[in-house]
Every structure is written in C-alpha cells, then in structure tokens.
Write a structure and sequence with these properties.
The protein has helices spanning 12-18, 20-32, 36-60, 65-89, 98-117, 136-147, 153-171, 183-206; strands at residues 120-121, 127-130, 176-178. By secondary structure, it is mostly helical.
Length: 207
C-alpha cells in the first residue's frame, strides 16, 4: 500500500472506484444545468463502478481498509450529494429541502458505521448490509422523477418528503438489508437505468 513518493499506491480496484468521479461530477453539472434525466443516467453508470469495485476486490484478494474508505467517499458523491442537487433543482426546495438534510445526515452516519464494520451476514449466511444502503437513493430518485410527470408539484413534494424521512430512518436500522451480488442483476439495473433515462432525456429534448 505504501509508496516512496505518494501517500498511497493505488491498485486496479481503486481505479475502478475512481472511474465514477468524472461521471458523477458531470451528473452534478447537468443537474445544475436543469437536465435531470441525463444526470440520473450518468449516476446509474457511476453506480456500476461502485458495484463492481467491491466484487473485484473480493475476487482478486485486494480487500483493504483504504478501498472501503475510498468507496465510502464516492458513495457520498454518487448517492447523497448528486441526488440532492437534482431534487433541489427539480423543485424540492425551500422548507421541503429539510428532507434532503435528513437523507444526507442519515446517509453519512450509515456510511461511517459501514467503514467500521463492513458487510454482515444475513440469515442464509450470505453478504448483507447493516442498515439500508445509501444506493437506494438513486432508485428513489428515479422513481420520483417518473412520478413528477403525473403528480402536481406540491403532492410530489409531500410524497418525496415522506419517502426521504422513511429512507433516512431505514438507513439507521440495526438489521441486515439485501445486497446485490449477482453480476447479471447489477448489469441489468445499472445499464438498463442509464439507457432508459438517457433515451428519455434525448426524447425530451427533441419534443
């Protein structure tokens, strides 16, 4: 891990983790430009990097505390800050943004605990998360983007606030939550989400 010239010597898994930096920052830039569909599409691509690094680390025998901390910092960017920017830009602002504060605060606590404990075992002996994982914020964001098409803004805000408060509470629960471990599931969810919202964004711009 040590390097004579730098603070740390990065390995192949670390580079996979860091590959989500440009996609996440571009997603943030698009959210500030009020292009939420493209921003969400890029977050699904960033989610793919986040999902693969842990699998690769275990497969290659490269699991180490530094990788866990690096992954946690990326989770803050991908699943807490980016969705906050998108939702705020889509009208979830003012007093309603208290829900975003709850989500980010609970998410930070959840990630700090994970850095200490890592994954846990479920009842069947497989890998699981303690507390609802922060990546569900992206699924929540995607679903609410769909609901924004059909719901009045204030009703959408009320539903969003309720879900964010429930999500924040679930992230702090001391119980195991399901972990995606199959590569096919991960590829379907991430690439499917990226394709769906990317195509929706293109269609929306042309209409």
């Amino acid at each position: 891990m040590n390097s004579p010239y730098y603070l740390v010597r990065l390995n192949r898994v670390d580079l996979v983790t860091l590959s989500a930096v440009p996609t996440t920052l571009l997603s943030m830039a698009l959210s500030l430009a009020h292009r939420p569909l493209f921003a969400i599409s890029l977050l699904f691509i960033a989610m793919l990097s986040d999902a693969l690094d842990g699998m690769l680390a275990r497969h290659l025998g490269l699991v180490r505390p530094f990788g866990r901390y690096l992954d946690g910092f990326m989770d803050v960017l991908i699943y807490l800050l980016s969705p906050t920017l998108i939702l705020y830009g889509e009208g979830f602002n003012g007093i309603w943004s208290a829900g975003l504060i709850v989500m980010v605060g609970c998410g930070l606590i959840r990630l700090a605990v994970f850095n200490e404990t890592g994954n846990v075992e479920d009842a069947q002996g497989g890998l699981a998360y303690r507390g609802m994982p922060v990546f569900w914020s992206l699924f929540l964001l995607a679903g609410m983007q769909l609901m924004l098409v059909v719901l009045p803004l204030n009703l959408w805000r009320l539903l969003m606030l309720t879900l964010l408060l429930l999500f924040g509470h679930a992230m702090l629960l001391n119980r195991p939550f399901f972990k995606f471990t199959r590569l096919g599931q991960i590829l379907t969810i991430t690439l499917g989400g990226a394709l769906f919202f990317g195509c929706w964004g293109l269609f929306d711009r042309m209409s």
